[in-house]
Each structure stands twice: as structure tokens, then as C-alpha cells.
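Exercise 7.
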Amino acid sequence: MTAEVTTAPVEAPPAFPLSRSRCPLSPPPEYARLREEQSVSRVTLRVSGKQVWVVTQHEQVRQVLGSPDMSSNWKLPGYPLQVPLPPEVLESLELPLVAMDPPDHTVRRRALIPELTARRMQALRPRIQEVTDEHITAMLAKGGPVDLIQELAVPVPSLVFCDLIGVAPDNVGFFRHYAEQMVNRDISPEEMGAAQYEMEMHLQGLVAQKTETPGDDVLSRVIIKNKVTQELEHNDIVALARMLLFGGFDTTANIIGLGTVALLQNPEQLAQVKADPSLMPRAIEELLRYLSISDSATARVATKDVEIGGVLIRAGEGIIALNGSANRDDRFFANPDELDIHRDAKGHLAFGHGNHQCPGANLVRVELDCVFSTLFRRIPELRLAAPVEELEFKHDQLIYGLYSLPVTW
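Solution. The predicted structure, written as C-alpha cells, is:
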């Protein structure tokens, strides 16, 4: 016997995204009410005024992200875009991997995944450690207070990204500058567009150069394999490089900043990690769950009528699968609003779920392990240099984080 299927709720849909009014390290408090009272409900997107569905319970979010009847294609009319893209720009946009559906998505992901295995990423650990040590040494030489975002959170993953795709040493400075521009809240839209165009030209040139003269890096190995399979065009490989760029430094930089604040705000937990470094891998999984920085980035549009939690989602309707809410669902995690480094956070959805699960998750884990372990070992007295209430959180961005993080010791 199937559950009774209901239609849209009676209440007026709230504006989305919802406000993190209670605590900047926690998702909007309204999520808890929705999980209990209306786990699949309507919201109105602030950016467009379009009504879409949000899904809040862990099991339901997994269902949405794992369903073959849910599309990631940004260009479909019902897709819940959360950034203002004019129709003509969207129409001409070359879709990134995250916005593709099978079979195109399958072909491109298949080319990349073998290069991002846990074994390959562990092989990068000595280099990640070297870069981390260099920047913490520079921090110590400057003396506090310093901005942890600019001094550590941005440069480490951006330099590791350069190594990953084989950027020539004389071009590393350009990529570092670009990474810094992307976290600069004072940059104008025109400057941002110019920086992104310049980066696009760099990536185009980099792929062309590696097609002619491959090296020993991710892009080169993808290109070498593709000469046999002939599955990808030049622009497909550029798109993979672009995805690695944004996923490779932006995600990690945001977690480094927020994770540092979360640990400093939980001194007992931090003390245990300092005393027993073997706890760090579990602590990292817990931070990923607890922070859920890409909370609303996992959006879909239904391609068929689908029932989620007793609610009928019709073909063509947009859905936002809130992994930040799912990761605070007490049906799946006990005391989910507490940071607990001893928790088995297996099953968290911070990296998504299904065929769009983050391909760079293994790299992010190694980077976070190196950075957090080294930071609190070499600067055990690290503390915030400003109250949490005064920190510049990215409330205006799709991927949550900090614009700056003053610390001292």
C-alpha cells in the first residue's frame, strides 16, 4: 500500500535562502521545524521569485540526489538556479560537469575519477605538507594578528591545485592571484568577469600546451588517455580543468576557515585532537558534516513525476536538496547540533550523493588533514583575534565560508 500523496502546502512559501539568524556555524533554525513538520515544502527563491521545493530530511535528500528522474541541467526551465544568470548568458553557457546528466556526465567523470583516487591523493601528501609548512612558517615570521584566509586557507589549496594540473612555476603567481580575487568581496562585477575570462584563456592555453607536450599531472594523463578513447573534445578537457579549479581551492579554503573557527569555539574537542592526532581524520568528517558549506548547491529538476516523503513532485519542478539540513537530521545523527569529534559521521552528505558526488573528496580530506594537524601542532596557542560576531561570513554566497579570519597567538 503506497502512502497518500499530498500536494503543495497551504502556508505561503518563505523566501529562500533562509537566514542563519541563530549561529553563523549552524544552518538556518527553520530547517529543524521543516524536518519535523513539513520536510518537503515550497520556498520562493529570492533571486528569481520562482517557487521551488526544498527537501530537508536525510533519507529524502539521498533519494533526490540518487534518483535517475532528477536532472542537474541548469538549462532546463524548472531548474532552481540561485545565481542571477540572464537567459541569453545561460543559453550560451557551456555546462560544467556538475550541471550535466548521463551519458555526457558519465563520460567526463569516467575520464577524471581514476586520477583522483585515495591512493593518488595520498601520494600528494608530502607536497601538501611542504606547502602547508611554508605558509605557517611565514605566518609565524609575521606574527599575529594575521588573516588566516589570505595567509593559509587560500594559498595552500590553490598551490596544490597548480601542482595537480601541472601549472608551470612562472604561472603559479597568476593562479594564486586569481584565487585571492575570488574571495575578495570588494571586487566589482566587471573585475570579477575580467578575472574569470582571463582564467578561461589560461586554461584553454594550458590544455593546448599539454596536448602538444604532456607532463606527469592530472590534465596530461586525461589527455593521453583521451588520445586513445577519443571521447572528449578540447573544450571538455578545459571544462574538467575549470571544475578542478573551483572545487580544488574554493571548497577547501572555505572549510579551512570555518573549521578553524568551529574547533576554536569547541576548546575541549580541540584539546583532545591536539593530545591525540589520530583523531584528526574522524574530526575532519565531523567538521564536513557539521559545517555543510554547500548546503543548497545540490539542486535538481524533476524529469518525471516523483513522490518524495508523501509529496508529489511533478515533472519540470525544481528541487533543492538541503544537505546542511540532512546532516543535522536527528533521525540519522544523534545530537546533530553538537560538534563531536568522536562521532562516526559516515553517511554525511557534505560531498553530495549519487553520480554527482564530489570527485575531489579524497583530495579535500588530505589537504584538511595536513592543514589542521600542522596548524594546531605548530601554533597550539592559536586563537581568534576578533569576536565571532564580528567575523565576515559569506552570507551572500552559494558556498558558505569566511571572507577573512583574523587570528593571533
